Amino acid sequence: MKIRLSIFTLMALSSLSAQEVILDSISVTATKISTKTKDISQSIAVVDEKTIEDKNVLNIQDAIGDIPGVIAESSTNSPSPRLIIRGAGLKARYGVREIMIMKDGVPMTDPDSFTRFDFIDMQDVSSVEVQKGPGSINAVNATGGVIQLVTKSVFKDDKNRIKVGAGNDNQRNVNLKLRGALSKDDFVAFTFSKRTIDNSWRDHNKFDSTQATLKYGHMFEDDSTFETEFSYTESNMELPASMTASEFETFKNTGSQHNTSDQWQNSGRDSKIFSINAKYEKEVGSTTFKPRVYFNTWEHFHPVTGMINDSNDNSVYGTDLELNNLHKLFGQKATFVAGVTLKADITNGAKKYKYADYETKVATSWPFAPYISKTLSDNKGALAQTEDSKTILYGGYLMETFSPSNDFIIDVSTRVDELSFDISGNEVTAYSYSLKNYTAGKGLYNVDKSYTLFSAKLGAVYKITDTTNMYASVATANQAPTTSELGENEQLNMATSVNYEIGLKTRAKNISADIAIYQNDVDDEIIQIKDANGNSIYDNAGKTQKRGLEVTAVYKPIESVQLGANYAFSEFKFIKFSENVGSSSVSRDGNYLPYIPKNQYSLFATYNMKNGFKSRVTTKTWGKYYMDNANTQEYDGYQFVTDIMLGYEKDAHNIQLNINNITNQYYAMEALKDVYGNESYKAAAPINGMLTYIYKF
Description:
Elements: H1 7-14, E1 26-27, E2 35-36, E3 44-47, H2 49-54, H3 60-64, E4 70-73, E5 82-85, E6 96-97, E7 100-103, E8 106-107, E9 114-115, E10 125-132, E11 145-151, E12 161-167, E13 171-181, E14 186-197, E15 207-219, E16 225-239, H4 245-254, E17 267-284, E18 287-303, E19 308-329, E20 332-355, E21 358-362, E22 370-375, E23 380-405, E24 408-432, E25 437-463, E26 468-479, H5 483-488, E27 495-507, E28 511-523, E29 526-530, E30 536-540, E31 543-555, E32 561-576, E33 578-581, E34 584-587, E35 599-608, E36 613-622, E37 625-626, E38 634-635, E39 638-650, E40 653-660, E41 668-673, E42 679-683, E43 688-696
């Protein structure tokens, strides 16, 4: 399939130069320096503060789920999204992988590319940036791209606020933000959030979290700044079971999911996380120094398939030492960015336990052995495994951005990182997917593995008119396996991603539009498969190719009205890949990757009246996608799932009603099929709403 961009479309967008230019969205991610998104040589989306407030964003998927090329879905109304950017992240069983998450320039992602969203308070976030594709100097061991969360600055003179919300399924939300000046140079801010939801339409689906953040900032006489942040989160999340095909039909008829037959009825993740970071920024002549240090420690109780993970001694240490230099090249302004990174992720005494309480049945076929049919609780049984691990990452990066003429912007960047794993443990008991029961483990084991990760990008922007830019880029990056993946397959190779992209960006008085076309070739992509014994493992696919078209457009016919549309076409294929089915290896060459819909689009409209009344309507549609690597079955997706907001703002008061899935559609957030023909479905949430009141003082 060849993607063709009509020359008439390009001419139509270029003709917008006759209109008055508006202020472009600003990115602080892509180039490490505040830059208009129009001047960046790759696809980047910015979700602003008003959108976040109007959508009542409580989880990351609420903020970015409508961005083309991004899949951000959750079946639990909690911070446990399935997060994929242009196919990267598809392999993750849980959590987020292959995507770099940053908060105010501080990495939230572990060295092996794993991110937990449960310790990020989205109610303290003022904007979100999504940079798609490999090659970013921010993206350490992450080929999918970068998500930057920009929080409310301690230096910004802002009003205090109290926010309370209540909704169906016993939803409750309280958020408090206080900010003040201790002196003319010292500032402090405090944020507290408490959330609960029962999700009673489904068994084992409750969620609650308590979060507190304290920020301190100091401005020196030479205008240099120092910031530090302390945060604590306690999160308790139940993860509901999947459904069989017949159970999914029942859900579609009733909107309820109870008494399912899945083995693992008691999965969940209870976490406690403490984090601290400090940042300093100082200008010396034309050079700005930006050193950062950060630390977090966490513990979790995490029942999953077969085992109960209990780990309470986990620490991540890191520093990023960066400098930016403004200079001239070819008689034009240029920017040079350089930095070094050091991160360590250390886990001591992580434990896995058997489930203590479960039912068994006897198999009706060979070997006629008992198997676990259903867990009855998440109580810990006998100790099954202990493990210590140490993951170290260090490296450096360089980037030069310059203009050889008034109409061109060129950026060249590279970074090189060394990633090493040291994993040791004792597996006394293992869970066998083929027997569906516990078996003897492999005993003592040790994994000592290192990868040299390289990424680079060459991009160019050409200014067609005052309002319209065209860009082209080529970028490459490596993706190493995670700690857990190496624990299952020590022979995994790192993946290599090469991305080619061209696009067009227009920013005018009444319209903003982005078009991007890309091709991403990946060698040795790490994917999840089933082995000959039925065990779920990770392996390298020989080669995959991902082609896509993404379009975003926003139009303001009058000052109070905004209309928008997003569209993504995705054609992701295995070029070379063989999958084990029983004892045979079956070629999947030419097949489509599962779960990624070919067509995905959303529409929105906002209306903000001068008297304070406001409204927003968003609707999204997913096309069909294949449920398995063999492409034997498609899921139909969903059509026009619609969210609305109605609100009123007056002086210090803001009251709004947000209703998600207002037509109460019953559909699957995820539909999969294994190599043995077994279907599984995860339900998306039915209609849910929250009434919120905000008072600013």
